[in-house]
Design goal:
7-stranded mixed sheet; alpha/beta; 2 domains; single chain; 428 residues; 14 helices; Aspartate Aminotransferase, domain 2; Aspartate Aminotransferase, domain 1
């Protein structure tokens, strides 16, 4: 190795170290209101960088293609047992090799559908997800799609339109219906929706990436049931309200599980990321109480605090003059910005002040996805850092003052910094 190459390598390594330190400080010193982010325990984070990463483990427990797999077999089996226990998923199997939520949904498509089959879902602009057969999806090459609608049950309050859903079940004749959304603050009545689909002979995928922690805590209706009110497939990421690593899980009723496993391997994936599986096991143990998150709260209490904090945030935003869409029953709330405010610019302005959010489409939105009408805010991450309802009241006042230009960026930034520094930070 020449001196110049060695010098450049060292410089790059130092830059990575510095960049990681900068990101640590950015997260510590800002207020994170992104509904799809959270802060796992230090033990979860540490397991993502352990020797589990070194092991190639193609195959299933007990049937690997490489030697030296005894420990990974035990780890994967235990993680699946924990996942089934956390969600009380009697009558289901699960696979923890999937890397994240979108690949999990894709696996269900390949497992359950034939080319030309139709998938029925909620559109992205009304609260669905890109992986639910959006018009830009690569899966449109293989499958057809249609969307059911939301209905405005009260001014600015939207729910799934059951009449439209039933009509689409009859008219479109889907093979699969997806429930579970990325920006839908209401609870989802899974048993009613799933039974309706099963009465029409249609398979159901429940994508609970956002609300799985609330389901695990018993604070949201569950899609798991060993009868016709239970979804055929349940997919999830594990880093949102579940407060685990960036990973995923696929559950399927026992009769579908063999097809799911074969679709994952050898059908579409190679070696699983065992470090993710180890970190997931840690997070699941924290949920059932075998391990503790650093604050010592039970997972149920943490989840109750998420809901209380989000409702406080929403109430105070409304009191401050901002418009709320579909009052929250979960960890997220949707804010409709004044018509003359650019959502991209306000997202950037909030970030400059240290408040991290994301702009978002709203039901019946007339603006573009790049500059939509709303903001999506979530309470899970700051609740992990110990923020309580008084803190969220303060945050709501800061947001309204920034959005309505009642406070300077300098004043807002100082207030955000003071609050962020008062919250817990569990990482070095």
């Amino acid at each position: 190795m020449t001196k110049s190459i060695l010098f450049n390598t060292v410089k790059i390594m130092l830059n990575l170290t510095e960049l990681t330190a900068q990101e640590n400080l950015r997260q510590k010193n800002t207020l994170n209101l992104i509904a799809s982010e959270n802060y796992p325990s230090p033990q979860v984070l540490e397991l993502m960088g352990t020797v589990w990463m070194n092991k190639y483990a193609e195959g299933q427990p007990g049937k690997r293609y490489y030697a030296g797999s005894g420990n990974v077999d035990l780890l994967e089996i235990k993680t699946m047992e924990l996942a089934l226990e956390v969600f009380n998923a009697s009558g289901y199997g699960c696979n923890v090799q999937i890397l994240s939520g979108s690949p999990a949904n894709a696996t269900v498509f390949h497992s359950a559908l034939e080319p030309g089959d139709l998938v029925l879902s909620l559109s992205l602009d009304e609260g669905g997800h890109l992986s639910h057969m959006h018009s830009t999806s690569v899966f449109n090459k293989y499958f057809d799609f249609a969307h059911y609608k939301l209905v405005e049950v009260e001014p600015n309050s939207f729910e799934i339109d059951l009449e439209d859903l039933q009509n689409k079940l009859i008219q479109s004749k889907p093979k699969l219906v997806i429930f579970g959304f990325s920006s839908y603050p209401k609870q989802i009545d899974f048993p009613v929706l799933i039974k309706l689909c099963h009465d029409h002979g249609v398979l159901v995928l429940a994508d609970v990436a956002h609300i799985n922690g609330l389901i695990a805590a018993g604070l949201h209706p569950t899609p798991f049931a060993d009868n016709d009110t239970g979804a055929d497939f349940v997919t999830m990421t594990t880093h949102k309200t579940l407060r685990g690593p960036r990973s995923g899980i696929i559950f399927a009723k026992d009769r579908h599980m063999k097809s799911v496993n074969r679709t994952i391997f050898p059908g579409s994936f190679g070696g699983p990321h065992m470090q993710q599986i180890a970190a997931l096991a840690q997070a699941l143990q924290e949920i059932i109480g075998n391990q503790e998150y650093p604050d010592g709260r039970s997972f149920e209490q943490y989840s109750k605090d998420i809901l209380a904090n989000c409702k406080m945030l929403e109430n105070e935003l409304r009191a401050g003059g901002l418009e709320i869409i579909s009052p929250t029953q979960t960890h997220m709330c949707l804010v409709k910005l004044p018509a003359d405010i650019d959502s991209l610019e306000i997202q950037q302005k909030l970030e400059k002040c240290g408040i991290i959010t994301n702009r978002n489409m709203l039901p019946k939105d007339t603006k573009t996805p790049w500059r939509p009408s709303g903001l999506r805010l979530g309470s899970a991450a700051l609740t992990s850092r110990g923020a309580d309802t008084n803190d969220f009241k303060t945050i709501a006042h800061l947001i309204t003052d920034i959005v309505l230009s009642k406070i300077s960026e300098k004043e807002a930034g100082a207030a955000v910094s003071k609050l962020a520094q008062s919250l817990k930070w569990y990482y070095r």
